[in-house]
Amino acid sequence: MIGERVKKYRTEKGLSITALADKAGVAKSYISALERNIQQNPSIQLLEKIADVLNIPVDHLIMPEVDTQNLDQEWADLVKEAMGSGVSKEQFKEFLEFNKWKNKQN
Q1: How many CB atoms within 10 Å of residue 24?
Q2: Roughly how many angstroms between the first and final C-alpha of the chain, as a whole number?
Q3: Structural domain range at position 7
Q4: Who's near 64: CB < 8 A, 6+ residues apart?
Q5: How far apart are CA 94 and CA 102, in angstroms?
Q6: What pTM does this model have?
Q7: pLDDT digits (tens, 9 = 90+) for 30-88
Q8: Of 33, 31, 37, which Cα lies nearest the Cα of 54?
Q9: Where in this chain does the record put each Sin domain (predicted)?
Q10: Which end of the chain is more exposed for a tag (fewer CB within 10 A), N or C?
Q11: Are residues 18 and 54 in the same domain?
């Protein structure tokens, strides 16, 4: 969830909710609601303000981190091979969705 990632990066930077809110020009109550997952649909403009204060790219707030340290080497090689063969992310996602559907049919 975005709120959990905001809280993670905020605490890593040693900022209080109040400090983050003040520096980003956002209401303290909004940051608090975001971190508690009460507010779950922040605008990209708000996320840009928060990311700027936290000195991180916006995508760090939007997308969960991938634990590449625990990624099986065979999986990593498969992903690299797919990327090298010209398979797009969208094609790969479609393949995964098809497999999920196929598995449900069995």
Answers
A1: 20
A2: 32
A3: 2-62
A4: 5
A5: 12
A6: 0.62
A7: 999 999 999 988 999 999 999 999 999 998 898 866 666 667 788 878 888 888 888 88
A8: 31
A9: 62-100
A10: C
A11: yes
Residues 42 and 75 occupy one common structural domain: no
User: Do residues 57 and 96 both lie within one domain?
Assistant: no
Q: Is 94 helix (H, G, I), strand (E, B) or coil?
A: helix
Average pLDDT over residues 93-100: 88
Tokens representing 53? 């204060």
Q: How far apart are CA 101 and CA 22, in angstroms?
A: 47
Look up residue 15 and give its two tokens.
């900022």
- Nearest to 8, CA basis, from 56, 52, 42, 49: 56
Residue 69 is given by DSSP the state G
Q: How many domains does the chain fold into?
A: 2
Q: Where do we find the tokens 């091979």?
A: 81
Same domain, 44 and 84: no
